[in-house]
Design a protein that fits this description.
Chain lengths: ~80, ~550
């Protein structure tokens, strides 16, 4: 039985290609729009692209760092609360 | 005029009470009709004071309308309608009545012109929402509802203490803009912030809301936190502290949602994140920022309810909440998945959705004030929203892997509710002028400029790239992340048990000592007065007569001396 067309490896490859094309297209589009930037940094080419990527990478790394200290099994509160 | 005689909040509350006694189609008709009537009443009510009275010598204004209160009362009434449509098939007989009391109290709080009326509705909301959680009927929901109530009663006490101080200080209970110049105003702010999900007590929200039923959390997501946004908008606009509080909430919500495995807890953390944007806007305090905060509250209620309706439909159909158990549901629940994705795009402020036209006003205000660091933080947070809610939620629930689950779409009323709210998300993103016309200040903002759209698309699409590139780091495990509720769920009980054990030991030591001393006294008394004791013996009559004679003789002798 073949699975849903959306999860076939060939479709996923094509979606990655499409996604990368869209990414390239949005960055190129920057050349064609008038800037109404408030700050100098916003005028650096591809600001949204690199800033968005870096921001997300940093957030994920911070989250993993916090998880080292505060992660617990999801049954953590079960035993002491079923008593009360 | 009927619109000033009939209070929309009280109407919804009365309807909630009536719903408790009704069944069948009459109940459905009332549950859908009354919120529609309330929407009409809110829109028809003229600006100004409709009801006025005095209580304890104070001016009480239970029904006052201005642009700000109308906006919030309107979205609360819309939410009551959408939530009721979604919840029509809820078997719990308590949930919908409780949700209506809760929704009506939220409308009442926004239409309150004085702090005492506000306080009454504030507490009624706490009770109504607690009953919504409770009516899920499970043991964890009961315990969560008790913790929830405790936190909100604490918030209520802070608020009441602040209101009392404010009235004592100014002699007026009018709900006006306040500055942080007295302990009373700090207390009022603290009471407001508890309900907003601000630190340090923000954990009440992800702790309690996800324990509600599949329909209950849809209601819960809308009213408590957004009423808090409303009162902050009215009471504390431009308070700089709120910028910091809001930014903390924004990043706290993202990071905890990234680590979360329960789909509805992801969305709960994301409520804190979104309210953080609004609180930051209130802290900035310019007209643009306040408009942005108010508009964002309006659009947020719709897309967050939509997200929770889709999550609720999944929970309804599969009985599962954890990302690790879900996945691949797009095959048999395409409509639910599509509506969930629309909500996810709207919360991420994708162009052509409602989030884009509201949230960008807050960033714009930061830019207009030349607050570079704040503007950068908000841009990073926008990317983070797409990461933790915009992609993470639909990806793990509807795609990810094939969980083998093949649930069917939810019943018609639930599908209609989702379609209605999805249409609102897209409609407000394209046709935003009616929303801008309702905002507290005149809005000349133009959301769709070429550069703004391109930068936003870059931010979002590249955060999507980051998600898929770093996916191995984001795979879900059967874990939770400790939050501040740990203090009252784990640490405080251990502390109390420790103090109890210590007190027990101390008491037994004290008892040992005192029993020693008391025991000796008791033995002495027993020796003389106990059975066979010298002073407890019965004496003969002759003996008694002799002793009386001896006493009299002694008296005689003493008399003559």
């Amino acid at each position: 039985m073949s699975d849903h067309w959306l999860v076939r490896p060939s479709t996923i490859r094509r979606m990655w290609a499409g996604f990368i094309a869209v990414l390239a297209l949005t960055v190129t589009a920057e050349l064609f729009v008038a800037h109404d930037a408030h700050f100098g940094v916003e005028r650096v080419f591809g600001f949204g692209a690199w800033y968005g990527f870096i921001a997300c990478a940093v957030l994920i790394i911070i989250a993993k760092g916090i998880a080292v200290f505060f992660k617990r099994p999801d049954s953590y509160y079960d035993e002491d609360e079923s008593r009360g | 005029m009927v619109s000033t005689l009939l209070h929309p909040g009280l109407l919804i509350i009365a309807c909630g009470v009536a719903l408790g006694f009704l069944r069948g189609s009459l109940r459905s008709a009332l549950a859908l009709g009354v919120p529609l009537a309330a929407i009409w009443l809110v829109l028809a009510a003229p600006e100004g004071v409709a009801w006025r009275s005095t209580y304890l010598g104070l001016d009480i204004v239970p029904f006052a309308v201005d642009r700000l209160s109308r906006l919030f009362a309107l979205i609360f009434a819309i939410m009551a309608f959408g939530g009721a449509l979604f919840a029509l098939g809820q078997p719990s007989r308590l949930e919908l009545p409780a949700a209506f009391v809760y929704a009506g109290a939220a409308v009442g709080a926004t239409l309150a012109g004085d702090l005492l009326t506000l306080f009454v509705y504030w507490e009624l909301m706490a009770v109504g929402s607690m009953l919504v959680i409770w009516s899920a009927g499970t043991a964890p929901a009961y315990r969560a509802s008790m913790r929830y109530l405790s936190v909100h009663l604490l918030g209520g006490v802070l608020l009441l203490a602040g209101v009392a101080g404010h009235v004592a200080g100014t002699g007026s209970a009018a709900f006006v803009r306040m500055a942080l110049d007295s302990p009373a105003h700090w207390l009022i702010l603290a009471g407001f912030l508890v309900n907003a999900g601000a630190p340090p007590l923000s954990a009440w929200l992800p702790d309690a809301y996800p324990e509600a039923s599949w329909s209950g959390m849809v209601f819960l997501s809308a009213f408590t936190t957004k009423t808090a946004v409303y009162v902050l908008l009215r009471g504390f606009p431009g308070t700089e502290l709120l910028v910091w509080v809001g930014l903390f909430m924004v990043f706290y919500g993202i990071i905890y949602a990234l680590l979360e495995n329960d789909m509805r807890r992801i969305l709960a953390y994301s409520i804190v994140n979104q309210v953080g944007f609004m609180v930051t806007g209130i802290g900035i305090g310019t007209e643009m920022a306040l408009n942005g905060a108010a508009a964002h509250a309006f659009t947020h209620i719709i897309y967050k309810a939509l997200l929770l309706m889709s999550a609720g439909s999944v929970l309804y159909a599969t009985g599962r909440r954890k990302c690790t158990d879900l996945g691949g549901l797009f095959r048999t629940m395409p409509l639910t998945a599509a509506c969930g994705i629309v909500g996810a795009l709207a919360i991420s402020s994708f162009p052509l959705t409602s989030g884009f036209v509201s949230k960008s006003m807050i960033s714009q205000a930061a830019g207009d004030e030349h607050l570079l660091w704040l503007w950068l933080a908000l841009a990073a947070a926008s990317a983070g929203v797409f990461l933790h809610a915009g992609i993470k939620y639909p990806w793990f629930v509807f795609f990810q892997k094939d969980s083998g689950l093949r649930p069917s779409e939810p019943p018609l009323n639930m599908r209609l509710a989702m379609l209605l709210f999805a249409a609102l998300c897209i409609g407000l993103g394209i046709y935003f002028e009616p929303l801008y016309a309702l905002l507290p200040f005149a809005a000349s903002y133009v959301p769709y400029t070429g550069s703004h759209v391109v930068v936003q698309l870059e931010l979002l699409l590249f955060s999507g790239l980051a998600f898929f590139v770093m996916l191995p780091m984001l795979l879900r495990t059967l874990t939770i992340t400790l939050d501040s509720d740990w203090i009252y769920r784990r640490f405080a009980p251990v502390l109390v048990r420790g103090v109890e054990a210590l007190a027990e030991m101390g008491w037994s030591a004290v008892r040992g000592r005192t029993l020693g001393a008391a025991g000796r006294v008791r033995a002495l008394v027993y020796r003389f007065h106990g059975v066979g004791g010298v002073l407890a013996r019965t004496s003969s009559t002759g003996g008694m007569a002799m002793w009386v004679a001896v006493l009299l003789a002694a008296y005689l002798v003493v008399y003559y001396l």
